[in-house]
Amino acid sequence: MVICLMALSSVIRGQMMEEYPKLKNIKVVKKFFRNSQNDETITKDIHFKDGKLTTVKTSDVVQNFFYNEKGLLNKTTKERVGSNWNEVTQYYYDPKDRLVEFSKKYQDGNEYVVKTVKFTYEGAHIKAEAKKSNSHNQLVEDIEYIVENGLIVRRVSRNRNNQIIGKTEYSYYNENVSRHTGLVGDKTIKMYTYDGKNSVNLLIVKSLFGANYKVITPLISFYDEEFDFQSISKNNELTFKATSQKYTPVTESFKYNASNYPVSSLRIDGDGFAKTESIYFYE
Questions:
Q1: HSE on the CB side for 244, CA within 13 Å?
Q2: What is the pLDDT of residue 40?
Q3: Widest CA span of the chain, in angstroms?
Q4: How far apart are alpha carbons 134 and 137 in whole angstroms?
């Protein structure tokens, strides 16, 4: 009986390790095909330690990620090699590990600006108020998010007269973000399809934001371009298209390992003006 239990325990541990692998490195090469004489290539080298994102390097920019004692992302720094340019973002949480404040210091012209977003929670409502240091700390954004079943389903923006100037609803299918529907203001409908395999982006955002990643990641995506709302989806995104021509359609294909996680991908923007190849390495 003891031997059987030990064997069963080993099987369970093996299944858990197989189901939740740890990323080690992602190598990305993005090529822009503007014309035969003016092609551009951007490389990105993404490093992890114990499955947690630590560094993102491009040819001239290095971004580092730092965590608090609970393992939640609490700071990133971004520096350009050979210059004084830099950006710093910081994340603050309450005792329930909910995001309560986000700040970003960045360069705007010849001066540095700090944008601060404070989040307050009232039942199913999350209030987000954004201020900038160069606007005498006056309110520059007044946003309300609605949460249902642990997911953000609506985003409403108001002007200084408390009038609704934007409203978007978010739909989910099979644990994936399937649609953004603009109802007021920008009425674009954005649509996404997925592959049914294990998402590599989900591994990343879970390790960054812990148990509340399904709310924090979408919240942050509106204030930090490093994060994507769709990253909380269970599967890998295959296609993106929208009803407005101002958005470029995207298709992506993947190759997988035995655990159904991606080992490589090829993303094509539009009619092929940009192609991105990624290779994923696991511990």
A1: 10
A2: 87
A3: 72
A4: 7
